[in-house]
Structures are given as structure tokens and as C-alpha cells.
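User: Quick sanity check before I run a bigger batch. Here is a single chain. Can you write out its predicted 3D structure?
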Amino acid sequence: MTTVPAYAAPTAKAPLERTTIERREVGEFDVLIDIKYAGICHSDIHQAREGWGEAIFPMVPGHEIAGVVAEAGSGVTRFAVGDRVGVGCMVDSCRECDNCKAGLEQYCTKGAVMTYNGVGKDGQPTYGGYSQKIVVDENYVVGIPEGIGLDEAAPLLCAGITTYSPLRHWNAGPGKKVAVLGMGGLGHMAVKLAHALGAEVTVLSQSLRKREDGLKLGADHYYATADPRTFEELAGTFDLIVSTVSAPLDFGAYLALLRTDGALVNVGAPEEPVSLNLFSLLSGRKTLAGSGIGGIQETQEMLDFCAEHGLGAEIEVISADQINEAYERVLASDVRYRFVIDTATI
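Assistant: Done. Predicted structure follows.
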């Protein structure tokens, strides 16, 4: 066991505070990663405050992890000491179910082991990236290509793959009209990625406050959803809408913006149940769908794509003593567009 500095929520809704945690010894197929940067995802806040249900405390959040390999087990073949690597939302899965075998470990039928607020195969709670080191099986680690700074790469391990996966699955590309609902940590990456994939991109945001940013990041159009005329003007327009918001929506209103056979895909997860009139799906053979993160192979594909196109997250680097303030700013939508912790400050 190795003792590591970390920031943890001691109980639900409590402020995060500095502490120490134990990391397991490096096994045959493990890598020890010196974490350099950890992104703050809205889901960290949901879980630290038990918005998504009962959680495990003390909790060390963080599943947007970028760092450098410090030690590799004797059986490790994919990475060597000094390699730039990342860890996302999961650190293990059953490896035997059809989904795992198909590279869809995020949908492991026995349940993937989450990077934090989970339980490992050893029966111990998992602790995330708000810490200085982590030990992870090499099969759940990805390489961060040269050309992307580790700080702007960290949010790609959740925000990047969470938006890239549905864009690829629903074939966003040339000739397709894609709308991104919400212009935050996930939304700004969805805009960048959809643009790089060749789609015509529209941002749907509550107001026009971030319009200049949206257009600069690759959007072709930008509309305010607070304006009822938006829904009249854009009726029947989109092949795909990716919703990144974690608040309940009027799904009927947004489904009306889809073309026949269009899809509204949710990657944000509201804490409350939502309602739906099924007639809004029947008219136009429309799909209301959800998408989780991505598998390890797809996450690597996403990172390589980002390196090829010069994409990284728009970030504000903070020190660890600013985490609690950052949580409040995320809730107030006061971040452009992702907080990243410099873990040297923990």
C-alpha cells in the first residue's frame, strides 16, 4: 500500500477537504500513474452530494485523469515508465460479457468498476483523480498523444468521450445537421467534435450569452431556447440533437426539432424523473436515446482524433484549495468551460 494525498468529501454534501488515501501495490498488469491534472465534472458534484442516490464516503471524486506512468508491473505490455496516459470513468469490468468482448466495457452487463464511488474486485472502495497517484490495470488506461497538453487532455477522458461516442454512433458528419443542447463542459466539446467530424453544428442554449464562444469553437448557428421563435424556426431541422444538460427538459418541444428518423440523445442525467408524451416520438419515427461514456478502444480513438485535429478542452486550471469554490461556480454555470485541478497543489 502507498499513502497518497487526496481531496475527499467526508460525507454527503460536506465540503471537500485534504486527506490521505491508500493505493494498492502495483500488480503484474498494473501501472502506477503520477496524476498531473484532474478535471472537475458536473457528475462529481452529483455524486459527492448524493444527487444520483446513495454513495460511498469518504469519496475522492475525479474521473478525468491525466498523468505520467511512474511504475509498470512485470506483465505490462502497453505502457512504459514516462508515458503520458489518461484514466476515465471506469477502471475495470468483467471482461467476459458480450459487451466487454465487443469493446463496450462501459456497458458491462455485470457492471463496470467506476473510477470512484465504486467497489473494486478486491471489495475495496475506489478513489478517483483528486489525488496525486492512482494504480490502474493497463487495460483501462489510454495513451495521451503528444500535441495535447495534459491539462487540456484531462477533460477529454469524460467530457470528450461522452460526446464523441454518440456523435460517432449516430453518424455525425458531412451532410448531417447536428444540434448541441447546452454549452457547458460537455457541450463545448460536442461543438468542437461535431465540427471536426464535418457536421453542420447548431448550439441551442438558454441565452445568447455564449454565442461568440460557440461560433469560435466551431458552431455554424447559435439559438436561444428561451426564445419561443427558436422552436418555430427550427422545427424539423436536425438529424441529431445531443443534449448535455442535466436538468429536466420539455422533450416534446425538442423532438419537434428533429427530421424524420432523427434522434435526440441524452448524455446529461437529471436527478429527477422526466415525462414524455409518446406521440412526439410516433410522428416522424423519432428516437429518444441515451449514451454513456465510451469503451477503452473508442476513448483511445477519440484522443487520437483530438490530437489529429488539434482539439483540447477549454480549461481554467485551479489549485486544490479552490475545489469547493469551483463546485459552486459549476452549479452557477460560471466556468468557461472546464475546471482542471493542478494535482501538485493537493
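The radius of gyration is 20 Å.

User: Great, the batch can go ahead then.
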